[in-house]
Amino acid sequence: MVEPKDYDSDFENKWCPGCGNFPIQKAMKQAFAELDIPPQKILFVSGIGQAGKTPHFMQGNMFHCLHGRALPVATGAKIANHDLNIVVNSGDGDCYGEGGNHFLAAIRRNIDITLLVHNNQVYGLTKGQASPTSALGMVTKIQKHGVTSSPFNPLATALGSGAGFVARGFSGDTDQLVKLIKAAMNYKGLALVDILQPCLSFNKINTHQWYKDRVYDIKAAGHDSSDLAKAIVLSLEWGDKIPTGLFYEKESASFHSRVGVLQEQTLISYQFDGEKTAAAF
Amino acid sequence: MRTDITVKIGGEAGQGIQTIGTLLAEVCHSAGFFTFSIDDFESRIRGGHSFNLLRISNEPLVAPGHIPDILVAIDQRTMSLNKANLLSDSLVILNAESESGAEIDENSCSDADLEGCTSNNILKISLNRLAKEAGGLITANTVAAGSIFAVLGTPFEMLEGLLIKKFKAKGEKIINLNITAAKMGYEAAGNLRYNKQLDWKPTKTDRIVIGGAKAAGLGALASDCRFFPFYPMSPATGVIASVVPYSGKLPIVVEQAEDEIAAVNMAIGASFAGVRSMTSTSGGGFCLMTEGLGIAAMTETPLVIVDSQRPGPATGLPTRTAQPDLLFVINASQDDFPRFVLAPGNPAETFESVKKAFYLSEKYQVPAIVMLDQFLATSQVTQQNFFKVDKDVERFIFNQEDLKTSQYSTALDYKRYEITDSGISPRALPCMGDIMVRATGNEHNEKGQISEDATNKINMTNKRNSKLEAMKKEMDLPEISYPKGADKQFFLTGWGSSKGPIVEACQILQEKGINVGYIIFKDIWPMNSDAVKPLIENKKFIMVEQNSNCQMGKLITQETGISYYSSILKIDGRPFYPQYIVDKTLDIIG
Predict the structure, then answer these.
(1) B-contacting residues in A 127-186 (Cβ below 8 Å)
(2) CATH top class, domain A4-280
(3) Judging by beta carbons within 10 Å of its beta carbon (0-12, 13-18, 19+), is residue A190 exposed, middle or buried?
(4) Which of B81-85, B403-407, B414-418, B482-486 has the lowest mean pLDDT?
């Protein structure tokens, strides 16, 4: 049996004490252990930002790539070998800003990847600039007169773009997060888990307590995750109350089941045959 | 006896110019002739001016023709652009105004358009009228082809045979329609024949007609490349399009990415996971791929990119040719890292260069870039059947079983970036056993963990760069042809696709008694300066390039300290014609 500690790494952690990434990482380890996936059988692909460092502080295979590019790298790896369990650790800036186009394309491809977006509504690694999900009017050192763009709504965008698995977690509720990550891993297609987390150093508005006072579990509130219309309505709810949980799940053919040559076996498992290739010419 | 005929077919985009040219080349091929065909077109789907320039010979060809022996003017513009430059014995086939009530072709030529024409051999035919008589306006191209074959002296049966083969899938009705149309065009030429005639008879050869784009695609397939992520861009799309027909027969995935950034990163992801991948783009797309080049270099992930060049900057001339990216691809992405840059000179070399790129990229775990351009990618050239597919491909992968015989006592000891004498570290694949493979774009230690340690940074940079000496030795030396006489002569020096025109220019000059040799670089980077230097020392070399700043000349000087004598730089977006190089060479050497 795989234990969460199998994912422990002695590599020096570089997050700030109290960072929301710690409980997210704890939930990941717990989920993988419960799914009985050993670190040797998992590939983490991450982008740039504090979230992008997550795989460094865990055991597992890892490709820590450039800003915004985790999804295309993960997509290539999954096409090459769809037996791989691929988890992408991205952030609000990485996934919704720099990698926005890849986010939309990955949803359309329905590539079978678990996408964890550590969403703290601020740029942490570069010290506190606004992110695509920062609230309108939020003051930062750069946005001195307040953020002038409306926040990006990842859940509504994903639902509107045809995503088959859309969830929101909160770093302050690891029990729920473990369940969401497990469900995302089991989903055959692109599974988005947007994870709200505080940034102790740079986001003085959306603090742990701020989230704690607002989040509620939609499952407990009786939400039916097969109801797209209700999911969309919920995705637009943001204010005094913030819904978390599985918004929507629907079976949909994943990329590798849409491509003939991948239906039979993984791309990497085919044997090269020079004579057959020459004959095809 | 060498016979050499150039046919130029001009008209608007959408008038089927390329279709006629292709048909012509196919019939020539079936007669065992050599062809060199270029398509010149604007960045538009309809209208404008485009032409196909087909050179036909009974001997091998390395360069395009230029002044047409036979001009086929489908529209007035073709006539007005060419009529003053024809040779006196040139033959003109003109799409003339219809004298009957047949559907009017508003592009067709009137007698007024012939004013100032330097050729007297003019065949006027109304393509639309004949096509309509044959059974459909759609066959106007076939009518034109019929007339061209008539004046070339091609037996009608050879054309008929090819039409049957070509339209086989479309059924008897379409075959007969086209044969009738071809016959009408053929007969419309009466007894008019061009004064140079080839010996037409069906001939089987082991030659093929192919362009650089397809040769690159086949080279990738022969290298066991299975994944082709790309974003459409002229003139690079043809490379990917050429592998699509094989998708049912071979295990390949072609994926149109959301942008070039995604394309290159997908290729890197697949390569990291163990599948050979290639993407293809032109200069503008390569700009977007430069960050990908960096992450491939930093993570030491094999990557093959084809850069099919076109004039820039920015959008430049999308459908035209140039060699402006050399210094860019050699230096692209921030900081220094080793990479390969190969520039084949013709389709046969393209096939081999792509194979070599895959081999080298995986052996050294560095990016490899193969440089084509619009001229090389799209020119259709007769080549010997060169498709040598190796039985197996060497992969240089550290497998799970290799652990037992390795320096590592357990999988946890594995070091993806182990510092070795060669600079090459064992490359394992993710999730293939107990080994955990860890890669990052940050500077990292031997285990692939982020490291900001000063000594580690120096060691890792040195490790990556230490591959260079061995890489240099993998580079083929430039091809040098010495003219008769002393070696302190002039040498036309070029790289990539200008090879053919340079070689032919030298032949023309030598036939004039002017001793000029050539030096052609194919494997460009990293330059094996120690070996190249003695080859070019004490020679007056004239750089022949399609860019404005003599990039290869500068690179040679940078690497060897030897300066070029002069340069012939063509920057109009059109290919080099041998005669152009000859004229410019004579200007230089006096």
Answers:
(1) none
(2) alpha beta
(3) buried
(4) B482-486
Report the CATH architecture of B4-188: 3-Layer(aba) Sandwich (3.40)
Give the relative orientation of helices A70-80 and A100-109 as an angle to the nearest 10 degrees: 30
B259 contacts A268? CB cut-off 8 A: no
Q: What is the pLDDT of residue B72?
A: 94
For chain A, the average pLDDT equals 97
Chain A nearest-CA residue for B385: A281
Q: Does domain B479-589 have CATH number 3.40.50.920?
A: yes
Do residues B87 and B118 lie in contact, with contact meaning Cβ atoms separated by under 8 Å?
yes
Sequence spans of domains, chain A: 4-280
- Percent of chain A topping pLDDT 70: 100
Fold assignment, B209-384: Rossmann fold (3.40.50)
**pLDDT of A70 over the 60 cut:** yes
Please list the residue range(s) of chain B that carry CATH number 3.40.50.920.
479-589
Half-sphere exposure of A67 (CA within 13 A, CB side): 10
CA contacts within 13 A on the Cβ side of B338: 27
Token pair, residue B428, equals 């394992």
Smallest Cβ–Cβ distance between A43 and the set B266, B392, B431 belongs to B431
Q: Supply the pTM of this predicted model.
A: 0.96
Distance (Å, whole) CA B523 – CA B353: 8
* Residues 6 or more apart in contact with residue A128 via CB below 8 angstroms: A122, A140, A141, A142, A201, A202, A203
Condensed to tens digits (0 to 9), the pLDDT of residues B463-484 reads: 999 999 999 999 999 999 987 6
Q: Does the structure show a pLDDT above 70 at A56? A: yes
Where in chain B do CATH 3.40.920.10 domains reside?
4-188
Residue of A240, A50, A259, A249 whose CA lies nearest to A158: A249
Q: Name the residue with tokens 């891993």.
A: A185
pLDDT of B451 > 60? The answer is yes
Å between B266 CA and nearest CA of chain A: 4
Question: How many angstroms away from the CA of A276 is the closest CA of chain B?
Answer: 8
Instruction: Residue A96: count other Cβ atoms within 10 Å of its Cβ.
Output: 23
Q: Is the pLDDT of residue B488 over 80?
A: no
> Residue with structure tokens 């006539």?
B79
Q: What's the confidence (pLDDT) of residue B137?
A: 84
C-alpha–C-alpha distance, residues A208 and A217, integer Å: 16
Could you say which residues from 21 to 80 on chain A have a Cβ atom under 8 Å away from some Cβ of chain B? Answer: 39-43, 45, 53, 55-56, 59-66, 69, 71-80
- CA-CA distance, B499 to B518, in Å (whole number)? 9
Q: Is B150 on the interface with A (CB under 8 A)?
A: no
Task: Provide ipTM, 2 decimals.
Answer: 0.98
Give A74-87 pLDDT, tens digit per residue.
999 999 999 999 99
Tell me how far apart the alpha carbons of residues B68 and B76 are, in angstroms, rounded to a whole number: 16
Q: Is the pLDDT of residue A155 over 90?
A: yes
